[in-house]
Amino acid sequence: MPDAGAGWSSGDRALAAGKLMLAWIALLWLLEAVDAVTGHALDRFGVTPREPSELVDVVPSAFVHFGFAHLAANTLPLLVLGFLAALFGIRRFLLVCALVVVADGLGVWLISPDRTNTAGASGLIFGLFGFLLVSGFVERRPLGILAGVLIAAVWGGSILAGLAPTQTGVSWQGHLLGLLAGVAAAFVLRRRPAPPVLTR
């Protein structure tokens, strides 16, 4: 898949990825500050299952959090995993994020328990983890495989803990659906090798 900046140097890619993720994180903190000063008015943008009117909140729910502690817990993994995923192409990174956010939000709307309200970037975090974990293997890229192994070593334990259904106040459904969406994105958006040049 062609990507904007395909001819960039590694330094250019890292700079663009860093700027993008810092801006993303800044937006999340700005939104949470607005939520705090408005008496948590943005919390209503979370997803309540199986309410047709809640479908419009599928995307916004990934950008709002239930308090600064919730956001702080998501900030570092989103920053690091997002930066690593964006290194392999900004356009593809945004497509991965779009696929994960929409699939995860729709899944939460379908299967989460009644009378719950789900929001936050954790579904996207699990999706980026899944994407980075398998994309190197799917595309047979040694650097991508190494990144996947290192990410599994660093975050694998916490990811598995986040999938445990026994946790209270945590949407393990959103985590699982995000992870599966990220793995699917690695296959759907994989880069295919260029066809060989025919000579005679």
What is the gist of this entry?
The chain is mostly helical and 200 residues long. It has six helices and no strands.
The CATH superfamily name is Rhomboid-like
Name the structural class: mainly alpha
Order of helices and strands: HHHHHH
User: Biggest β-sheet: count, sense, barrel?
Assistant: none
CATH top level is Mainly Alpha
Mean pLDDT: 92
- Total helical segments: 6
Strand share of the residues?
under 5%
Describe the overall structure.
- There is one protein chain.
- With 200 residues, the protein is mostly helical.
- The longest helix has 28 residues, at 10-37.
- It has helices at 10-37, 68-86, 90-111, 122-139, 142-162, 172-188.
- It has one domain: Rhomboid-like fold, CATH 1.20.1540.
Which descriptors would you attach to this protein?
single chain, mainly alpha, 200 residues
Topology:
Elements: H1 10-37, H2 68-86, H3 90-111, H4 122-139, H5 142-162, H6 172-188
